[in-house]
């Protein structure tokens, strides 16, 4: 096993060196990773980004689009034949039909290649002529990133952390109560193992629905064709001096198998090859869920971003150390749920929420930024009078009823500490405010020729992530 592991590493190092050496003589490729936890808007972001790069009328802050340097954009077959293709056309049809609806969210990894034909500016551009830049967009569930933190944990350490969190979350007390009469050192009974795994998965699902972010192992909630397999049939147990053949020892073995067969291949084959990354964060949803959910999001993001190999992708670095993530954008989604007057507060809260992880990335040489975006704008801004006061609101079509409604979520604080401090202190609810949230349906679109779907700052996000390479 050790020799095979070393051989695999040598092969991949040689493969990486070969790619690096041939890159200057081939068409450049940008591998853009798109991730975020459940309901952060990954699918809509990718769909709108590609649509707006193909029809660039709403992309004035993307310099290559505004200057006319992008002559055309077109989809091509993706380079990895083993990955599902991101179903761009089906998702765009869902968002732009006469009765638009939200497409199904990310359930597994997928990929899409968008190629841009560019005319370089200046004297060199006139001599060299047009060039092509490929953007390989890799979509994967953010829950899978949470699993990368498991690589450095033993089964006992993971169990201790998981059981310490459980009583404070919905469904967690039920799982802990299930363990009360259990002997981890008893011989393994498969039906008992399955019940424990199912009940733990049920607890994770309830926690996610309540707004909590760190619900690992991620494949428990998105098992795919692994549902019911032994690699997903384990759960945290109290520490015990358990003999071979016991429940605890078998769960430990399956935990290590999960890391070896599920987590490591994802990191090696997909995650480690990304050089630009956007992390979509549903900050508004976490604020609405309460202080505990917001602090859990902060911890989850720190764990996720700790998995990135960040730094500059200069020539020698890529030869000797492999590809690094050189740009990371932290994007607070659903900015269209707020009047633009509150967007600076949302961005400031996002920056404060991710401060520790962002500082580590900056120190390692990566470029980072935070902004508030809406990949698809679903509302219009308005003002209403309430009890003699004028309120800045947004107006849109409610997802559940289809009725038009004006929405005022409450004033986000100018100082992010007013939210982060009670979150870190473990408060049960916000002391001096109540933050609401509504679910809006996509609005029917009327687009001029050459316009992509309406958005908020998608062009600014694209400029940060891709502009230097275009």
From TrEMBL:
InterPro entries associated with the record: YcjX-like
Protein name per the record: YcjX family protein
């Amino acid at each position: 096993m050790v020799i095979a592991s070393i051989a695999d590493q040598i092969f991949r190092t040689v493969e990486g060196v070969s790619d690096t050496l041939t890159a200057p003589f081939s068409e450049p490729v940008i591998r853009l990773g798109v991730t975020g936890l459940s309901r952060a808007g990954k699918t809509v972001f990718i769909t709108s980004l590609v649509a707006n790069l193909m029809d660039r009328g709403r992309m004035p802050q993307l310099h290559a689009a505004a200057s006319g340097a992008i002559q055309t954009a077109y989809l091509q077959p993706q380079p990895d034949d083993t990955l599902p293709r991101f179903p761009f056309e089906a998702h765009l049809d869902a968002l732009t039909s006469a009765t638009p609806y939200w497409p199904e969210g990310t359930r597994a990894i997928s990929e899409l290649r968008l190629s841009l034909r560019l005319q370089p500016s200046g004297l060199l551009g006139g001599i060299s002529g047009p060039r092509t830049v490929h953007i390989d967009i890799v979509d994967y569930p953010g829950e899978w990133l949470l699993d990368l933190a498991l690589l450095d944990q033993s089964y006992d350490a993971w169990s201790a952390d998981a059981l310490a969190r459980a009583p404070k979350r919905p469904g967690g007390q039920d799982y802990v109560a299930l363990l009360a009469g259990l002997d981890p050192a008893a011989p393994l009974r498969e039906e008992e193992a399955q019940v424990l795994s199912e009940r733990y998965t049920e607890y994770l699902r309830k926690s996610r629905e309540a707004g909590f972010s760190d619900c690992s192992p991620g494949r428990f909630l998105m098992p795919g064709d692994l549902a019911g397999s032994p690699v997903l049939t384990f759960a945290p147990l109290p520490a015990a001096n358990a003999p071979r053949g016991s429940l605890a020892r078998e769960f430990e073995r399956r935990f290590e198998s999960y890391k070896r067969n599920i987590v490591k291949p994802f990191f090696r084959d997909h995650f480690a090859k990304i050089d630009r990354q956007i992390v979509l964060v549903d900050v508004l949803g976490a604020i609405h869920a309460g202080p505990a959910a917001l602090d859990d999001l902060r911890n989850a993001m720190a764990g996720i971003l700790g998995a990135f190999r960040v730094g500059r992708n200069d020539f020698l670095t890529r030869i000797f150390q492999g590809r690094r993530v050189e740009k990371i954008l932290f994007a607070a989604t659903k900015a269209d749920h707020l009047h633009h007057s509150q967007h600076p507060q949302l961005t400031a809260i996002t920056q404060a929420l991710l401060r520790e992880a962002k500082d580590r990335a900056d120190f390692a040489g990566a470029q980072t930024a935070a902004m508030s975006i809406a990949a698809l704008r679903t509302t219009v801004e308005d003002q209403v009078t309430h009890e003699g006061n004028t309120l800045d609101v947004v107006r849109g079509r409610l997802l559940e009823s289809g009725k038009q409604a004006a929405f005022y979520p409450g004033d986000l604080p100018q100082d992010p500490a007013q939210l982060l401090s009670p979150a870190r202190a473990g408060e049960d609810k916000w002391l001096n405010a109540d933050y609401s949230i509504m679910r809006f349906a996509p609005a029917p679109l009327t687009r001029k020729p050459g316009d992509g779907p309406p958005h908020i700052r998608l062009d600014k996000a694209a400029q940060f992530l891709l502009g230097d390479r275009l």
